Amino acid sequence: MTKLIEYDQASAEVKAVYDDIRATRQTEYINNFWKAIANHPPTLKRTWETLKEVMVSPGEIDPLVRELIYIAVSVTNGCDYCIASHTAAARGKGMSDAMFGELLGIIATANTTNRLANGYQVPVDEIFKIGDR
Known about the structure:
By secondary structure, this protein is an all-alpha fold. The protein has six helices and no strands.
């Protein structure tokens, strides 16, 4: 198992990222994910900056919808840690048990139809191509 870098063991570079995580999320808690990737400070910094830009910065997609998308990708990729952490974040943003169940149904259906389309090598309809809009 990867060593988790606690705040009191961290380098100044890692502490700066941890401090930004705490300030951005308005919490003192640092997730184990960040503590694990802190073993390589450049990866920690780059990953945090990307996640903050995509998941926290204002945009056209509602914060709850962002978390639902993250859960969908995490379920599809089989990342138990990400499923757990983003499900908790989605619940904090208002996701109900019914929404979670519906989301899982959508994920399962999309994975099934994706595999069928790939297996049958279905050609994309001209009307669906981005350049035709």
